[in-house]
# Entry
Amino acid sequence: MDSLLEFAKGPLFRFSFAVMILGLIRVFILSLINGFEAKSKAKDKVIPKNFVTKLTLGFILPIRAFRVKPVYSFISILFHIGLLLTPILLFDHALLFDNSIGFSWLNISLSGTIASNLTLFTISAGILLIILRISDKKSRFISRKQDFLWPLLLLVPFITGYVCGNVVISPLTYKTFLTIHILSGDLIFILIPLTKIAHCVLLPISQWITARAWKFVPEAGENIEKILGKEGQKL
Amino acid sequence: MVAEKIKTKQKSTVKIPEMKYNIEKTPDSDRVTQFLNIFAAILKESNYRAALDQYTKVSAKCARCTTVCHVYHATQDVRDIPCYRSELLLSVYRRYFSFEGSLYARIFGGFELTEEHISKMQYSFWNCTACRKCLLECPSGIDHGLITHLTRYILSEMKLTPRALVISTREQLFGLTENTSAIPLIALKNSIEFLEEELFEAFGVNIKFPLDVEDAEYIFFAPVSDYLMEAETLMGIATVLHTAGVSWTIGSKYFDAINYGLFYSDLVLGRVLNKMEEEVKRLRAKKVLIGECGHATRSATFLKTFWHGDDNPEIVNILQLTHKLVMEGKIKIDPDKIKEKVTYHDPCNIARQNWIVKEPREILKSFCRNYVEMYPGGADNYCCGGGSGLVSIDEIRKYRTTIAGQKKAEQIQQTGAHYIVAPCANCKKQIRETLTDNNLDGELIGLHDLILKAIVIKGAKQDG
Ligand code: SF4
Ligand code: SF4
# Structure
């Protein structure tokens, strides 16, 4: 157990964290390249900037979120805030970062009650989101496996983390929970760039990419006819 | 209340009419291979890959888009959920054209494109009116209008486009009349002459529809069906331009603004615009003026893409020009003429990106005392239900007016307006049919039709 724990919070943590960062950089850069390639191939390069900005900021900030499904949006926003703040700002996490990558933010980290309340908020929001997804016919119909599994997986480190930090348990149980806590965290890091969670870096450029894709390549239509051997055909 | 009535009537008694459009004969070779080959060619040459790559990675499946789609609103059929429909194409992209997807499929298996899947796409993507309202609510930034456009493009290369649209487009590109309504030049001239006579009779003033004037400020392209169906709109436009002394012309060689390419094919879009380009160059007009038509205006903005050279002309919609003329005081409209309640329907193609939204409102408010907004309106408007070419498919009229047009019918009823102003040839036909088929009150009218009723013309005889 001890060696597994050491492995999970040492080398595996460093590895998975690196996979996440490099993976996210990769998907982001690929999307950027796609967008700029579209720009270079298009003849008309002017996109509706105000519209793109309005929608992009509208969902990042997220002022537009409440226009429809306000309850769902509110819970989802709480969940996102919890997901982002808790892992980063928790004192013990800051310490972990300090120990393993030699860089941290110990002085602004959260400890004690704020952190555990935030964790509880996040757990409740996550559970509510799953319930909403399952109970609504529309959401259920369009959901893939990962849409149900992600919130579940995300809750694992939160629940185990909460237990370790707030419940009096035997040292062995504590260690087991802590190991699960860290292992699940590592797994999440690795999966982030490969799944829909990549939206954490991709969202800011979605609207821009859409606007770019609407700018067509002048010769594309005729070239496609050539590739398909339909040159000169009349529709 | 009335809206409620329509809704309950819909839900309880009316079955969803089939949305099955007719196509021309399809070639019988392997459709799956065909689809993939076409998709591959399009991805190679065009800019769609950027969007598909992004969308397959970010889709949150949050179902927000279901709250605003007028089609889903009416059918409550999960297959009409925007995100579900787009996934039909995205799943093909992911499986066959993305690195991760094809790798995954090789190891674990999973989705395979089938005949059945193609049939599903064939109808589903013509259920969507490509109004792009759902884009406004999608936190992932997925533009279902773009996906619909692209899928229809692929389908069109397999000859799975509604026959009505193909026949019109073929006439426009290769036919003798070179327009979607197959109006011969002689008939156009007759129609123009008739309109001029009507105007003279009404006002005692010679208001012209100039034909083939070289070096004019504006060359005017109307959705050509206006010459058959919207005489008042055209007379209104001619009167506005005459009164303000605008230099304009219609080209006799090519005069149709309709471009179904925006709905189903980039190839068609470009070819039609190249015809427009030729005519603009032939008459050396400075700017392109598009009549009351949303899709025609938006598709004309692609002139910049398809124009040979960099001297592409400015595209102006008649609402923008008339607005400018009203604001500059170059035309006067009598504010005491229109006493009825007036409301305004925003055509998606000019309103969705908040492009031409304030202009028509300012024009209307300048002379309609009893103007009410439709809710929601402007960039948030609902589609008339006939968008993206649906209105031209007569065999699906029932679907259009009872399903796709249901939300618009509710909105119109809520305003209680007498005049419903819709400055778009598509919206006009669709809303008129919706009013008839649902036994609703109200008169559908073009913006310039209404202006014609109240414009002050110098030297005009006094009417009663
Ligand atoms: S584009 Fe319009 S019709 Fe199509 S899915 Fe979106 S809201 Fe519905
Ligand atoms: S709003 Fe966007 S992400 Fe959410 S279900 Fe619809 S298309 Fe998918």
About this structure: The radius of gyration of chain B is 23 Å. The CA atoms of residues 87 and 289 of chain B lie 38 Å apart. Chain B touches chain A through 61 residues (CB under 8 Å). Confidence is low (pLDDT under 50) at residues 1-13 of chain B.
